[in-house]
Amino acid sequence: MSVAQPLATAARPPERRGACPTLATPMETGDGLLARLRPVAPGYAPKAWLRLATLSQTHGNGLLDVTARGNLQIRGLTRNSAGQLAQDLADAGLHSHAGLAIETPPLAGLDSSEIADGRPLAEALRAAVMAEGEALRLAPKLAVVVDGGGLLNLSGQVADIRLDAVRRDGAVLWRIGLAGDALSAHALAEVPQSEAVAAVLQLLSALTALGPAARGRDLDPAALARSATLPPPQAIPSPAPVGVLTAGGLAVQGVRLPFGRIAAEALVTWLDGLERLGASEVRLAPGHALLVLGIAPERANEAAALAQAAGLIVDPADPRNHIVACPGQRGCGSGLIDPRALTDLLVTTAPALLDGSLTLHLSGCGKGCAHPAAASLGLTGTPGGIALVVGGRAGDAPVAVLAPADLGPALSRLNTRLRAGSDSAATQITQLGPDGLRALIKDET
Ligand code: SF4
Description:
Elements: E1 27-29, E2 32-37, E3 43-44, H1 46-59, E4 63-66, E5 72-77, H2 79-91, E6 101-103, H3 119-132, E7 143-147, E8 159-168, E9 171-180, E10 186-191, H4 193-210, H5 221-224, E11 243-247, E12 250-256, E13 261-263, H6 264-277, E14 281-285, E15 289-293, H7 300-309, E16 323-325, H8 339-349, E17 360-363, E18 375-382, E19 385-392, E20 400-402, H9 404-420, H10 425-441
Parallel strand pairs: 6-7, 7-8, 16-17, 17-18
Antiparallel strand pairs: 1-2, 2-5, 3-14, 4-5, 4-13, 8-9, 9-10, 11-12, 12-15, 14-15, 18-19, 19-20
The protein binds iron/sulfur cluster.
């Protein structure tokens, strides 16, 4: 199985734009221009999705992505077609947010198990930021999370600024955090909703003062903290958005796009079937997922079969749920390996790694688009070979670099070792440590 063409090929160095591709400023990729949409509506009816799929074929190459943060990407555009796509989307009422990314959980307002519906606060914040106009000069990739909790909460989503709903003495407060997920962010204060917008604007002004590239991590949390002591953060577990999920009494069917991508033809077939089954809405969700609403429980199996036929992941136990990958050589000019072939290799050669205890990141190059944060274990395409990165980002210093032909035997040795142990893959890899892991995969033991 070939996971990579000769590595020192004509792959382009990854483009680090420091900005997110939009309809107005699409990004050059290996298959044309890519535009990322942050839909204003939390979800679309199947008919609207069908229109989207058709537009992706008319103006692009008919490939659509759902990103790790739950945004939609349309690929294979040209300079001319991107403009026409923007017009056609607007005509169809499929509007996108522009400017500062303010994210809420995909089921906000529908999930009765959430602490608070974050959407009104998110809207108030959007309006306040817009009213500030040129007074705020923010980094294009700056992200604010407004997480009211619930089943599919955003506690694991890293953000520059976050507002996490917490219950204190019967009241709901918003915990303001800087640079991290709900556990790792630096907590600054817990405020009532009426004070939250002003508090965030203050942070955005502080970022503006630091310069247009400043991110949440550049602010000094000690100088900004309003409370000397705050309760420790609470981990709020959130299941993978795959399979039949019940969110506060609401039944939802989650599907994941393998490699975060679906072809318009497959999407159309799936949506046609969903319409027949009575689906009312399909929502984008973090983790390269789509959530289907309105399917009656007795038709859930039919809906799952439809999704499976369209190539979507419907089983929470599917080992591919633990792999995060970009298109690599198959769809990006910077790709040095083929993550899809690598996935097949992992599933067949090293299933012990896919026990769910760790996240594997397969990255076509060191840019790490599919998973910008650190991953438990990563395989990254580099000009010198396939880099094995432990607990780091795709471009971080590797534990070892392997020739493509050596990867299969190396994974096989690792699999044998993990199978012999009784602990999870994550625990055993931690126990091995970088030196032990390097020796094992290089066969130097
Ligand atoms: S990480 Fe993947 S998608 Fe991003 S630039 Fe590299 S090869 Fe392309």
